[in-house]
Amino acid sequence: MDFQLIVRKVKSGEESISKSSGRMITFIEQLRDTAALKECKAQAAAVLEYLSQRKDGSVEDHNAAVKIKARIEHRLGEVLAETVRPGNPQFGHGVRNGKIPDGVPPRQSSRTQQLARVPWKAIERG
Q1: Which residue in 50, 78, 109, 126 has its CB near the most CB atoms, within 10 A?
Q2: Number of domains present in the structure of the chain
C-alpha cells in the first residue's frame, strides 16, 4: 500500500495512524530513494501537524506519528551512508561514491547518517 494513500486515510478519519503505523514503517524500510524518503518525511510532518490541531487526537496516535517520522530519518541516514560519508564536501570530504543527492543539505546528510549508526531496534526499544 502506498504511503500517500495511508496518509489520506488517516487524515480522512478512515484509519488511525497507530493502526497504520506498522504498514507505513514496512513501506519506509523498503525505500532506497532519497527523494521518496524526503516526500514521506514531508507527509509525516503534515500528519503530525494535523494530529496536533485535532482536539480529539490521542497520545497513541501522536506517538505513532513521531515514530514514523523518526524511522524515515533513520532510513534516510541508512540510504545516504551507502554512498555519502559525513564530512565537509568543501574540503573533499563527504563523498564516498558520489555527491550528496540534490535536496539533501549536507548537515541533514551528516545528522541522519549519525542517527543510522544506532540500530533501529535499539531506538525503537527506547
Answers
A1: 109
A2: 1
